[in-house]
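PROTEIN DESIGN WORKSHEET
SECTION A - STRUCTURE
LENGTH: 148
TOKENS:
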């Protein structure tokens, strides 16, 4: 029997030996994940916390509305269509990590550099935890044309 629980922030586990990481992260609705190796991350003052995957969790999601980005010629693009990934694991943290890893590979395959989480769904089937992550691909780049 499947059981769905209310969406709440899930801590993202930290792998031993991950550089610069001291505690877990809460991934929840409105969280924005950003590719730390992308050009905007190197040239804009985006404060983020590193994840072991080379992506970061933007500490202040309101920074996407900062007029300084637009004034400097940067634009956040919102790609229509929701992306959903579900993963199973022996505990919810591992399932979340697996779902995010799969999701971020899909975002990277679309040549985009960020993802906004719309919701995190926890459930279990026969006692095995499942975590689903739903959201929208975002892309930050200089210029007004996407990939222009």
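SECTION B - SEQUENCE
RESIDUE ASSIGNMENT:
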């Amino acid at each position: 029997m499947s059981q769905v629980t209310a969406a709440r922030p899930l801590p993202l586990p930290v792998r031993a030996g991950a550089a610069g990481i001291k505690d877990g992260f809460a991934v929840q609705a409105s969280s924005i994940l950003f590719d730390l190796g992308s050009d905007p991350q190197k040239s804009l003052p985006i404060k983020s916390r590193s994840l072991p995957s080379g992506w970061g969790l933007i500490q202040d999601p309101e920074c996407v509305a900062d007029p300084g980005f637009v004034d400097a010629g940067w634009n956040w693009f919102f790609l229509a269509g929701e992306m959903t990934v579900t993963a199973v694991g022996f505990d919810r943290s591992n399932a979340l990590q697996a779902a995010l890893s799969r999701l971020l590979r899909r975002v990277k395959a679309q040549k985009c550099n960020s993802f906004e989480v719309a919701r995190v769904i926890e459930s279990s089937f026969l006692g095995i935890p499942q975590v689903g992550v739903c959201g929208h691909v975002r892309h930050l780049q200089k210029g007004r044309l996407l990939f222009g």
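SECTION C - NOTES
The radius of gyration is 16 Å.
The longest strand covers residues 128-142.
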